[in-house]
Write a structure and sequence with these properties.
The chain is an alpha+beta fold and 241 residues long. The protein has three domains: 7-74, Integrase, N-terminal zinc-binding domain (Arc Repressor Mutant, subunit A), CATH 1.10.10.200; 83-132 and 206-237, Alpha-Beta Plaits; 134-204, YebC, transcriptional regulation domain (Alpha-Beta Plaits). Helices cover 44% and strands 22% of the residues. It contains eight helices and eight strands. The protein has helices at residues 7-19, 21-39, 47-58, 63-74, 106-119, 150-159, 181-190, 213-228, and strands at residues 83-90, 96-103, 123-124, 134-143, 164-167, 171-176, 197-204, 232-237. It has a four-stranded antiparallel β-sheet. It has a four-stranded antiparallel β-sheet with strand order 5-6-4-7. Strand 5 and strand 6 form a beta hairpin. The relative contact order is 0.18.
């Protein structure tokens, strides 16, 4: 079982998560609210909410915060209209970038995202301009801390219906079909595994390496700026960092 490691990107994101935990929890809370509004407050019926809660737990979001977000979305609320929008574009050196955002003002968010592309050597494109270069997959990451028997994990992964498992010194990366992600995650959880990451992700089919120092600085500023934006939920890219 093999596949390109996504761990470097996850590790970078985790470092930022630790430094900006409050902001991350706020973003996750908005994702939970959108999931509730689209399918109801019961995660056993609303699969999107169930997946979002799993993602929140993988990011160490306290259960009290999760429940508050569910209750807020279930009530009358403020009447605020929040929508999900996906932006696509090219960063410096042709790096493909996909941004998933949640906003109450699409003009503001689009302007901010476009500005970040423009000032960092990239350009925001039209819908579909780079998404064909990514595969939508369920991604479950388990820490390889020396306590897990690799052969047993492989058997459990296959038994739960996963597609693949990539092994590195630091983690086990399990990929699934998006439609079977919840079942695989639940199955592994019942077998006693805990996750570093558990979400449906956009995984690049190939990766772009940058060697120019200016472009390296620009792509770091672009990704950092996007991830720091309050409206941006996820940033996917094919930069080999």
């Amino acid at each position: 079982m093999s596949g390109h490691s996504k761990w470097a990107n996850i590790k970078n994101k985790k470092g930022k998560t630790d430094a900006q935990r409050g902001k991350i929890f706020t973003k996750l809370g908005r994702e939970i609210q959108i999931a509730v509004r689209s399918g109801g407050p019961d995660p056993e019926i609303n699969s999107k909410l169930k997946d979002t809660i799993a993602k929140a737990k993988a990011n160490n979001m306290p259960n009290d915060n999760i429940q508050r977000s569910i209750k807020k979305a279930s009530g009358e609320g403020s009447g605020e209209i929040i929508e999900e929008i996906t932006y696509e574009g090219y960063g410096p050196g042709g790096v493909a970038v996909i941004i998933e955002a949640v906003t109450d003002n699409r003009n503001r968010t689009a302007g901010e995202v476009r500005h970040l592309f423009d000032k960092n050597g990239g350009n925001m494109g039209t819908s579909g301009c780079v998404s064909f270069m990514f595969d939508k997959k369920g991604l479950i990451v388990i820490e390889n801390n020396g306590t897990i028997d690799e052969d047993t994990l492989m058997m459990d992964v296959l038994d739960c219906g996963a597609d693949d498992c990539n092994v590195s010194e630091e983690v086990f990366e399990i990929t699934t079909d998006p439609n079977s992600f919840s079942a695989v995650r639940d199955g592994l959880e019942k077998k006693g595994y805990t996750f570093v990451e558990a979400e449906v992700s956009m995984i690049p089919q190939s990766y772009t390496t940058l060697t120019d120092e200016k472009q390296l600085e620009q792509i770091e500023r672009l990704i950092d700026g996007l991830e720091d934006n309050d409206d941006v939920m996820e940033v996917y890219h094919n930069w080999e960092s």
